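Students often ask why inverse folding is considered easier than folding. One informal answer: many sequences map to the same fold, so there is more than one right answer. In these notes we will look at a single instance of the problem. The structure comes first.
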């Protein structure tokens, strides 16, 4: 008996991130930088959605010249 061709699953547009990536984005260096620049407190960073956390991390890297 022949098998039916497998259907391709649509690819998600969402990016998958590992826990290590998220922990790096919410690390102590980023929190200290955000607090000194009066962007966010540690509690606010912990409660941020992933999109805002990623933007904050990108701003942190830009400020460090990376």
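Output (designed amino acids):
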């Amino acid at each position: 008996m022949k098998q039916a061709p497998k259907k391709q699953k649509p690819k998600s547009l969402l990016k998958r991130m590992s826990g290590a990536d998220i922990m790096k984005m919410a690390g102590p260096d980023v929190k200290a930088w955000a607090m000194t620049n009066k962007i966010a407190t540690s509690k606010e960073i912990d409660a941020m959605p992933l999109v805002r956390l990623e933007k904050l991390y990108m701003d942190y890297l830009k400020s460090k010249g990376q």
